[in-house]
Amino acid sequence: MELYSEKINRLIEEFSRLPGIGRKSAQRLAFHVLNMPQEQAEGLAYAITDARRSVCYCKECFNLTDRELCPICASDSRNKRIIMVVENPRDLAAYEKTGKYTGVYHVLHGAISPMLGIGPNEIRLKELLLRLQQDVDEVIIATNSSLEGEATAMYISKLVKPAGIKVSRIASGIPVGGDLENIDEVTLLKALDGRTPL
Ligand code: ZN
């Protein structure tokens, strides 16, 4: 016999599909939502569907946004001649949280991985090259220090260098295999300051 009725089970199942959420946590979340005031639960559901519906990629840097341009690309105070290349919006958020980086970003949405069959065409590389036809002084490659991140960094540097644009790679301090999003701000800033030319 099922422990819960169908609708409760469905809710638990939906929560358990989220990353890092096991069966137990999913149950906890489901019961938390069921105990919320009706209005609050509807607010949560609306926030999810509304964000999902209206969020798209920034046409310049491919960060997630609900406008044509993300707030960073739209800002006059950001230096558009320095582009930091990251694997995903979470890494961008990690650098943005430091509050010290004043350039702009380019979000690849992945990294080259022959093992997983992800080639250069599967990530936003063509779009990066298009951006480099404008006035760009430096490309800072801030892909993860995983095998895929390193391979992607090498690939990009080979593409960008012939265009006469300075290419650098964020420095050590970031553990090998480490995801940027899990790294503290001080380490991220040190890595940025100590970036090396490629
Ligand atoms: Zn943008």
Shape: elongated
Overall tally of structural domains:
2
Strand content: 5-15%
CATH topology annotation of the largest domain: Dna Topoisomerase Vi A Subunit, Chain: A, domain 2
Strand order of the largest sheet: 4-3-5-6-7
H-E string: HHHEEHEHEHEHEHE
Rg over CA atoms? 20 Å
The molecules bound to the chains, other than polymers, are:
zinc ion
Which features characterize this protein?
198 residues; alpha/beta; Dna Topoisomerase Vi A Subunit, Chain: A, domain 2; 2 domains; 7 strands; binds zinc ion
Question: Please, could you describe this protein's structure?
Answer:
The structure is a single chain. The chain is of the alpha/beta class and about 200 residues long. The protein has two domains: about 30 residues; about 120 residues, Dna Topoisomerase Vi A Subunit, Chain: A, domain 2, CATH 3.40.1360.10. About 45% of the residues lie in helices and about 15% in strands. The strands form two sheets. It has a five-stranded mixed beta sheet with strand order 4-3-5-6-7. Strands 1-2 form a two-stranded antiparallel sheet. Helix 1 crosses helix 2 and helix 5 crosses helix 8. The longest helix is centred in the first third of the chain and has 17 residues. It is elongated and about 65 Å long. The structure holds zinc ion (ZN). Zinc ion binds next to helix 4.
Helix-strand blueprint:
Blueprint: H1 6-16, H2 23-35, H3 38-54, E1 56-57, E2 64-65, H4 71-74, E3 79-86, H5 89-98, E4 103-107, H6 125-131, E5 138-141, H7 147-160, E6 166-169, H8 185-193, E7 196-197
Parallel strand pairs: 3-4, 3-5, 5-6
Antiparallel strand pairs: 1-2, 6-7
Zinc ion binds at residues 58, 60-61, 63, 69-70, 72-73.
